[in-house]
Design brief:
Layout lengths: L13 H13 L13 H16 L24 E2 L2 E2 L13 H7 L5 H5 L7
Antiparallel strand pairs: 1-2
């Protein structure tokens, strides 16, 4: 294996993601967490920070994906400067979706569903 690309939402949680980071470090395999979907950047920024601060202590052979869309839907969106994730500004895992969006899209009463009725086949 040349690069380990964790999909942080498919692994069974924070502890398992940390175990993958530590195992990759043991075998000197660089890790590039997958961050191409809604909220994945918010999740993997913490993995990159943990890897830098407590595992590799280096940016050498370290890369991470960033997709610049849909961050506006989160209470503490991922931010990038000079090609690096910035530390989150709030405590937590940064994956909390804004309450107004939850209300707007809740099924079946959210306005998004009223604007686009779904036909039910019986």
């Amino acid at each position: 294996m040349d690069v380990c690309q964790i999909d942080s939402c498919r692994v069974a949680g924070v502890n398992e993601n940390l175990a993958v980071l530590l195992m990759a470090a043991k075998f000197n395999i660089p890790v590039c967490p997958h961050a191409g979907g809604v909220g994945l950047c918010e999740c993997v920024q913490h993995l990159a920070i943990f890897d830098y601060l407590r595992v590799s202590a280096s940016l050498e052979n370290r890369v991470i994906e960033f997709v610049d869309h849909l961050h506006e839907h989160f209470t503490d969106p991922a931010r990038i400067a000079n090609g690096h994730y910035l530390l989150p500004e709030r405590p937590g895992y940064s994956t909390e979706i804004l309450q107004r969006l939850c209300l707007h899209t809740s099924y079946p009463d959210g306005p998004v569903w009223n604007d686009h009725p779904i036909s039910v086949v019986t």
